[in-house]
Amino acid sequence: MKISISHKDKNRILRDALVLSGIAANVLLGFIMSSLKLPLYLDTTGTIYVTLIAGPFFGILTAVVTNTVSMLFNPTNMYFSVINALIAIHTSVFSRKHSFRKVKDVFGYILMLAMISGILSVIIRRFIGMDTQGSVVDNAAIEFAAATGFPYLPAAMMLDVLVNVFDKGISLGLAVLVIRILPDDISTRIANSIVKQRVMTEEEENRIYRWKADSKGSVRWRESSKLLLTSFVLVIAMAWIGLTLYFNSAKNDRIEAASDACRFAAEIVDPDMIDTYMMEGENTPGYLETKEMLYKIRNNSLGVDYLYLIKVEQDGCYVIFDLDTETEYGYDIGTKLPFKDEFLPYKDAILAGEEIAPIESKSDEGWLLTIGYPLKNSAGKLVCYIICDVSLEYMADYMIDFIIRILLIMAGLFILIIAFELWTTSIYTTYPLGAMTSCVEDFAEAGDDQVSLDNNVRRIRSLNIHTGDEIEALYRTICDLTLNQAEQMRSIRHLSESTMQMQDGLIITMADMVESRDSDTGAHVQKTAAYVKIIVEGLKRKGYYAEKITPKFISDVVRSAPLHDVGKINISDKILNKPGKLTEEEYEIMKTHTTAGKEIIEKAISTVKGGSYLKEARNMAAYHHERWDGNGYPEGLHGEVIPLSARIMAVADVFDALASPRVYKPAYPLDKAIEIIQEGAGTQFDAKCVEVFIESLSEVKVILKKYDRM
Q: What backbone torsions phi and psi does residue 466 show, to the nearest 5 degrees?
């Protein structure tokens, strides 16, 4: 039976194989260097190339597992996992911001790795009390310090950094060699095995990073911080509880051992000989033999550092036996010692020969726990106390050393845990959320642009998020929402286009009604509308009145241009079609077509809600006979006070009147009509409107030709 493996499974196998190869490379190279006793390590080679190919989490995983496995031939390697993990982090950060193609950047990268490794390794060795005597670096540091008087620790750090420059340089070279040998698409294939969606392009990822930068907080870091804090508190609490239990247990064990030592001593010391020992001293028969037995008892009792016998009197304590230690001699027999401050509260009980609880004290001799056992003679009288002192300082030092070692081991694991949390949060939360947010923002910015909306719908659906949780459910909802909205916008656009067509039809109908009464306008509304379009597009192209000329303004002006003479509906046929020159009275009546047109369109605006495009129709109808110099009608407006749409229509209207035949005159030649328009620039017309009209003569000729003028 043939088993098929999906591309994603193949990529996942490739990723796991890469990590295993990185661990194997680190362990093998580290073992070889350790066996040859060379001052190099090369145990970060795999960490570097895994990080560069698969990302920081797998680099840190490679680092921590490497140091764990390396304990098989070097038990102290686990303490240095934090260094290897920091190398993976720095490699990841460096690769995002710099290139390995620049010599300066490469040297800076190697130097930083050398400083991380060199300085931290010396500090860690110092903390754990690692014996480095005999190593090349340590011997060189000792000789350098002796020859120059330079402190040993900084000298060791500098030499270690120097050695690591070569070590990390070689490691980087080997890592780059491995990367060049591997297929070019390996990073993409591994990325495909990790993320729960389509892999984003570099441009898309940059947009996500910018979006994250604009955010006040980050889910990724918030969740990781919570995990870190929780883990840290949990580890500290467990370590503290464990160490406290250990300390109390060890303390009780030592109290029991000291108590046993006191009882054993009581069995070998003859209480009836105490006074004789005090009077005759060490020469008393049996004194030295007894002292020898006391040595054996002390040396075989767990944690007992001092064992001595004292005779307690009201004025102080007199030494009977005081055993020597490795670092100091005991007091001679008969030596008087004062009561220690810690024992004063128990003085009466001691003089009465009572057993007392263990007493803790801190002095020049250290942190001690004292066990006292009363020794009585055959008559039941107290003759002396057998004292055993247990050092608690050693236990405290051991616990501090233990804590440091635990923290060093946990540091690498903590970094791995944080990296894992960041990795999982990225692929399951922030990466898909960022991708969705970027797409939705583009969708929102598309507005009513149907092409952009459709493209963004396809882009959102192409993300193919499959996290299998609420994020995927949200993604499916967004896909449906954006698709429905795009379809609704398409329906609205179709309805809007139908409405606009109906409105345009009404406009043309109204214009035709006026034109049909004027015997010689000759497609006037069509030609003026075409000229208006030429002028307004020319103004936009030249950048004139940029704040005014928007796509909506252009649409409104061109669509409503045919209504500029709608007011002529109120002018009688006698005046409108008079073959000769109008009288002064008739001219005044003719001029009223501007105000009449304004009133007609204002009524339409008040009737048709949302017909904002008619506002420009009103402006053109009312003011297309105003002049730039203020000598026009009906209100004598001047300059830019005249609405822009009316200034545009003025040029189009006059040019068509000049270039077209009328009952009272023939058509002017094109050159003459253009000359008259140019002469009116700055007086009758807006000079900018004239400028763009003249520059578009080729388009004007097309319009004239279309309507059989040329």
A: -140, 60
Burial profile 524-533: b = 16 or more Cβ within 10 angstroms, e = fewer: bbbbbbbbbb
Closest CA to 259 of 296, 312, 304: 304
Q: Are 528 and 564 in contact (CB under 8 A)?
A: yes
Residue 637: closest CA among 625, 650, 620? 625
Residue with tokens 């190869």: 21
Label residue 473 by pLDDT band (50, 70, 90).
confident
Do the Cβ atoms of 120 and 82 come closer than 8 Å? yes
pLDDT digits (tens, 9 = 90+) for 351-375: 888 887 888 877 766 788 888 899 9
Q: 18: left (phi > 0), else alpha (psi -120 to 50), else beta?
A: alpha
In this prediction, residue 1 has a pLDDT band, given cuts at 50, 70 and 90, of very low
By CB atoms closer than 10 A (0-12, 13-18, 19+), residue 334 is: middle
CA-to-CA separations, 590 to 298, 523, 645, in angstroms, rounded: 133, 20, 21
Residue of 241, 219, 237, 240 lying closest to 229 (CA atoms): 237
pTM of the model: 0.58
Between 650 and 182, residue with greater pLDDT: 650
Residues 492, 476: Cα–Cα separation, whole Å: 24
Identify whether the C-beta of residue 88 lies closer than 8 Å to the C-beta of residue 61: no
Single out the residue of 624, 632, 630 nearest to residue 651, CA to CA.
624
538's tokens: 């020319």
Paired sense of beta strands 304-313 and 366-376, if any: unpaired
pLDDT tens track for 492-526? 766 655 545 555 555 555 555 555 555 444 477 78
Q: Is 212 helix (H, G, I), strand (E, B) or coil?
A: helix
